[in-house]
Predict the structure.
Amino acid sequence: MPFVNIKITRDGATAEQKAQLIQGATQLLVDVLNKTPQTTVVVIEEVDTDNWGIGGETVTARRQQGK
Amino acid sequence: MPFVNIKITRDGATAEQKAQLIQGATQLLVDVLNKTPQTTVVVIEEVDTDNWGIGGETVTARRQQGK
Amino acid sequence: MPFVNIKITRDGATAEQKAQLIQGATQLLVDVLNKTPQTTVVVIEEVDTDNWGIGGETVTARRQQGK
Amino acid sequence: MPFVNIKITRDGATAEQKAQLIQGATQLLVDVLNKTPQTTVVVIEEVDTDNWGIGGETVTARRQQGK
Amino acid sequence: MPFVNIKITRDGATAEQKAQLIQGATQLLVDVLNKTPQTTVVVIEEVDTDNWGIGGETVTARRQQGK
Amino acid sequence: MPFVNIKITRDGATAEQKAQLIQGATQLLVDVLNKTPQTTVVVIEEVDTDNWGIGGETVTARRQQGK
């Protein structure tokens, strides 16, 4: 009964891509730790680039600088 | 000063229902562990059904299949 | 299929008390939002008082000051 | 490579203020623990006042009461 | 620069298995969303079975009942 | 009433350093958003290097390779 939380920047991930993340993360827990998929929960959070920072800067600012 | 984070699918929970969750979770910590309500924080996160998976599938897909 | 994360200071909560928190949080989601208990997950995290701060101070320091 | 998650009520924080939080939190980890800013991630989550509770009440309700 | 948090019960996962989870989750983000592995962070949290509940019961209690 | 969660690798941060993180993160919210320190909560989580991954590898493995 693992719980997986995936945080990504909000960049237009499609419903199909999110379904692939959920399927893949669930399968990973099955493959590595023999966990039961029926009680494995995956929650994806999409975060605005103004709200995500790395290197002390927002992702918005980094993209404007071409980083 | 507990911190409670409740993640649910975004399914039209009303402001009144969310207030009940906050009241109930706070009272639970008082009843079981004698915590101080004044510093007990409860945060509710509502997650789109495309972003929530169980059993390797999104909740969106499960509902389309009548699961 | 809600997910509830309860963070408390590590203060000797017993296994019985933690079971009560899990039972109570699950029932709360049933009562307020009619959620299915079988897929409701509750995770309790106990945090050392050196690692928990409020008002800009650690809980360890606050207790030494009788707060 | 620390990870910092800041949850605040959604109250009109500007992009500039959020950039300051990201810059400040990253610098704090550098100053106190000599962490590398390039792999320090900060994620800000803004939460509706209906979804944030303290003292057993939503922030929405508290503000209506002038608390 | 995704952030993945995997919570599992503390059940003796080996360092090798945890390395496989980290490798697999990182690769999943590369495969599905073309994310950069160098800034993808994965954090695994192992939780005591007394602190993990599903169906309103602790995992400890469920195992004693043979569930 | 912000909530700040700081995850770092378990590397011997002292109680004094953790107190500095708590003081600094609380002050940051005061300075940038004029938040009330009395209800600002900071929780620090220290994670074993076997359980923290970046670039698809555990921090344990990266350090053995001199990265």
Remarks:
- The longest helix of chain F spans residues 15-33.
- The two ends of chain F are 39 Å apart (CA to CA).
- Chains F and A do not touch (no CB pair under 8 Å).
- The CA atoms of residues 18 and 44 of chain F lie 8 Å apart.
